[in-house]
Design a protein that fits this description.
Elements: H1 3-16, H2 25-35, E1 41-43, E2 49-51, H3 56-61, H4 70-73, H5 90-96, H6 106-112, H7 116-122, H8 131-135, H9 148-155, H10 159-167, H11 169-175, H12 185-189, H13 202-214, H14 217-223, H15 229-235, H16 237-248, H17 259-263, H18 280-288, H19 296-300, H20 314-347
Antiparallel strand pairs: 1-2
Length: 349
Amino acid sequence: MPCSALFPLVVALIVQTPAAVQPKNEDIETCLACHADKSMSVMLPSGESRGLFVDKGGFTRSVHGGKLGCTDCHTDVTEIPHASKPFKSKREFTIAYYEACKRCHFANYSKTLDSVHYAAIARGDRTAPTCVDCHGAHDITPPNQPRSRISQTCATCHRGVSTVYARSVHGRALIEEKNIDVPACTDCHHSHDIAGPHAPGWRLKSPELCASCHASQSMMKKYGLSTAVMQTYLADFHGMTASLQKQDGTTGPRVTALCIDCHGVHDIAKTKGPGSAQMQKNLVATCQKCHPGATKSFSAAWMSHYEPTLQKAPLVYGVKLMYYVLIPFMIGGLVLQILLHLWRVVVNR
């Protein structure tokens, strides 16, 4: 087919093809006419210098690149040149744009209202983190890529806790081994509705946090770990007490041991490691945190999270089996005796 014949067809296709959605580049280029200057800054009344440079490349590579323009967030800018901002400090600048994110991310914004961070802001703590403190501003990228980045973000404010976590069995697996199965900060504390460890009821919910991974058969099978830890915990005195306290909605002083009391919080170690609080030689000290008079015999009586079997704790298994037989026999015998007594009464009338 000659080229002259193809020309009308190409023109027709161009006309019929819908126009592609174009990113809002117009206002970006307009803003970058000034804000691409790396030396651009403003001196604030607090004495701080606030840089006003915006890296075009960083913004283009961000999750918003090609989707949003500058005025989608800076909605107060309606003309060029725009008026100067009356911010007194860099922190005041950050907080002023805190709620810009909710225009698109309202669900996550709503969650933040229940967070310990928002509670701090509400009581006047202006150092509490806002959206941009965790996600960035113009260079926002997925917060969990790589997954270890989550903990690094929290470490910006919680350096001490982060250092302890990095040495734990979970932290080493995440940071050194790049294992994505282990929990990062947000798996226990959540991301937007971040709960504080002193929140009412949070402590009693902590076994459920542990169980979210340690009760998963598919996950624990990968690491040769038992999933019976939750069941055995709930069956013993500690777990039963915690369950009753949770059902009652009690938030008073600690009355029983939870997972975190024996295994630690951010410093959780392998149970078979030499420094583990659950090793038999260290177990007495662990028990003595709640039971000051505990001796080696006291700690030795604990069966860890093992179910009694013929191989593990055969004596306990035998006693347990005996009760399975003895209790129904005794109750059955009592019922039979009552029935026989009633029969005798009826017959002798």
